[in-house]
Amino acid sequence: MVSPTADRSEIAFFDLETTVPTRPGQGFAILEFGSILVCPKKLIELESYETLVKPHDMSLISSLSVRANGITADAVISAPSFSDVADKVYDLLHGRIWAGHNILRFDCVRLREAFSQINRAPPEPKGTIDSLALLTQRFGRRAGDMKMASLAAYFGLGKQSHRSLDDVRMNFEVLKYCATVLFLESSLPDIFTENSWISPNATTRNRSNARAVLEGTGPSTSPPSSSRNIENQVQPGSAQVQDQVQPGSAQSDPFDLGPLIERIENEPLQSNEPMDEESSTDTPSRAIIESTEFLELDQVSITSVTVSVVPFFRGPQKIQILHNNTPLQIHCSGLKVRFGLSTRFVDHAGRPRLNFVVDVSPNLCGILDACDDIAKRFVDSDSNSEWRPVVNRKPGFYNSPTIRLQLPSITEGDSTRWTTEIYQKPSSSSPSSSPSSLSIQQVVFNRYDVSELEALIRPGSLVDAYFSLEPYDYQQNAGIRLVAKKLIVESN
Fold this sequence. Notes:
By secondary structure, the protein is α/β, with parallel strands linked by helices.
């Protein structure tokens, strides 16, 4: 086997297997590290290394963790701690080009955390190649959701084992296969692109031709639009990669690792925020299909409900529930608050993730149950996450179903505010009420004060809710979040 060079020009493909947090703020613990060093000129493996890692707290290895990667507590009980292998990990990675699938959002962040916990400076990359972002942009979404398992299945490389060294080698093979396809397509673009069921170069599109909807359980065959997240992950410094190829035009090899390495990202690694599905701290999205329409319950036809995968600027894709090709949003009046605001969970910055629970009518239950079933079948086609029903029916209270409405927030500079529009109206049962006095007024909050909201949204209050249905698949949990866009609360 050829030895690594002294100039550390090799590409270090690496992957981590970790525990899966079961409560907010718990964090991740590394269970396994695997890496290979690859010659960028000959694309041959020069060196490999893998090791199990014993976490500092064995109780972090939950059933969710075992289900995700198969690594049990017994498997790591006699393994070295991270501090024991830190020297080897540092030597493999420091000063080299790093490569991996979704490493910018996950593996790089976990690695920095692990070195910080043992009071050591982390290794620094010469550059970074995130194959999730790169392939989504250059290869197109012809392999579906672009997860490693989907890419491997597309090329017939077998099942993903979710073990570090196996996944690293699979990642390397996937890149080589994608490079070969792109090379062939670039050599005869008129033929290959025309006969391809999806063009790898169609990475931008407008809303007028963006309504590619999935009615079954298969992944979307629509190519992704260029997203801010993807562009940032494959650019050197501040120079963006703008060499989008026009269909039918000849081009140089689009996957030559020489030019590719010149494009790698050298900016500081970002902290890892959850992949947005479970977080209620939002920033304005750039989903392809947008809607401001809210349907009444009698306007919703279950036969018109479909599921679609669309590009999303915080990640490679987002699942949407559509009604007649428009994102499904519902207006429901007179929802009775069962439980007031919950501040039990917090986001990555320690801010409460606010939500409250309301009773639901049989009509609303029927609609949400149907949407739940459609989305579950879609997610189950490529996920082993545990599905959480959107309608909550507790044992012994099956005839008293409830739903949870989320109140998202947004941070602007040093200030935080709710994005939900909140209004107040007098109670219709008030003796002093008259048509002229039943005016609706928007509630203006001077600051992010949960106590103000708690005084407004109390158990027994009646709420007119305008909400969207947002599927998520995050940390082995999947389901539909109901996000309140507008609330009209009856004053007590």
